[in-house]
Predict the structure.
Amino acid sequence: MLKKIVNRILVSIPVLIGVVFLIFMMLNVIPGNPIEVMMKEHARADVVKRMTHYYGLDKPVLTQFFIYLKNLLHGDLGTSYKLNRSVNSLIADAFPYTLKLAIAAALVAWIIGIPAGIISAIKENTIIDRLFMGVSLLGVSMPVFWAALLFQYVFAYKLGWVPVSGADTWQSYILPSIVLGWSSAGTIARLTRSNLLEVLEEDYIRTAWAKGLSQAGVIIHHAFKNALLPVITMMAIQVASLLSGAVITETVFAIPGIGRLAVDAITDRDMPLLQGTVLFTTVLIIAGNLIADVLYSVIDPRIREN
Amino acid sequence: MNFHLKKYDPSTAFGGSQGKRDLRSSNKKAENPDEKLTAKDKKRIELAAAIGEQETAFDKFKVMCSENKLAAASLVVIIVIALMAIFAPVVAPYDPTKQDLLHRLQGMSAEHIFGTDQLGRDVFSRMVYGARVSLGIGLLPTFISLALGTVLGLISGYMGKAADFIIMRLADITMAFPSLLLAMVVMYTLGAGIINIFLALTFVSWAGTARVIRSQTLSLREMEYVEAARSMGVSRTSIMFHHILPNCLPNLIVLFTLNIPGSILSESSLSFLGIGAQSPMTSWGLMVSEGKKYLFTNPVIAIAPGVAILILALAFNFLGDGVRDIMDPYLNKQ
């Protein structure tokens, strides 16, 4: 078991290095001096030259990459061009907002998704099932930014129940987490439904029926636990993807999280900040997948033994 | 034929672990595929056997339209939107770029169905032209990334060894990124614009296809007819493209339909963030973005294009589900 986990972690390392390399190269192959682009035409030539040297941008790209990698191994993501603050501290300031949002959204997804999936499976091919699955497809097909605006208009502006935007009170997280969690709820509901349906065809379920157990007894004690296995791992993956999916939700609701930081970095052409935020989020996702994998083999003995 | 394919879901696509689980569960099911057949499927197979001929793609298509009304309706919706996009100059009542500052930010009326925007441009006309971008982005990058992913997946699966290793590690790396962030980085590098959205979305989504096609190639290359072709001295390229590729087609068609909504939503997200389509060009995502400033005074400007995106994405999702169901009765139904 431990060997498997260590093995899985070791496999992630080359991917991680590849990710760093790809991001660095993509952001650094842009022709032209980023300092010049950022300072626009007002900059004096000697200032540009000094700044270029200061940020080490006059060195060859590969040398720059190894310097970046060295700093990265020391946990240093560099300095933001625009704000002249360390990217680490910017991310540290922003991350709590994103984390709160992602957790709230995940809760929304589970609280809606799992019961909806179970009900759909029990009532397979009835109107309720069709309705739930239709709504879940609606969640997947809906542009997040548009749903966000619609919710803002209806619940914040027309009804005045919650703040329009910001992140000052817990109430301001209600709308963003529903918007963000909805599409994940759809995925969870579909997965729960299909897994439950699959499990319900197993022999031991037939035995449970034959024993004369009630429907609730069969579903709760026999089917649900086994159907939930893939759903749990999906949850681990989703928390990670919610962290990255927050880009648009944060932008619309003016929450100063990681996603906002990334969008601002693009607008300001702040390369180190963009690089840092993308890298940070990607590492979170890789870690999320890793946890999902390990979790899966921990809770499912069949996988553990293979 | 007996291949399994889980629904490709863009929001969870970057799970390296997922692919493995899919394989596992599908292997289990492959032992007894008949159990997964519904009564309808059985009837169809019996029917085909009775007629004594194989179902053609068109037959399947007719079956889908008659059995799955939702998919048929979705197809009609898509065709209508496509016709609107193609004949935009005829359909649109106004010039989408013509400004009329005296009549800006008007609500819904007989002259302007969805009102006018901040520059007095007719919102409905802009939406008709915007359909070109949304549909084009839905179809073209999905097709290109599918083609790229297919070729790489075939090579990876059939050649094995170094080619397989390199392609699959590249796929791992690409799929490790959250797709929207990766697309944002590509847009940062290339700059905003339509062609660059094509490139960004292709770059982001080839890897999923490559993995699916690779795993299918791995099982197909062990088939007798491939062995026969090999023993007859057919070249590797020919085996890949003439013997293996045709058998991947059902999966490819399903992947294609189900990947389209993802592309449409990604484009609209990028345009909404201001790094996709640029004014004066119209895209539904851009229109929502421009309209959001007037959300509380004139919501229809932002809401209407959003509804259009929703309808188009939903139609492709329903159609995709329908296509998956008819393509192969053994396909994993979710």
User: Anything to note?
Assistant: Confidence is low (pLDDT under 50) at residues 1-33 of chain B. Residues 224 and 270 of chain B are 47 Å apart (CA to CA). Chain B has two domains: 10-54, 58-333.
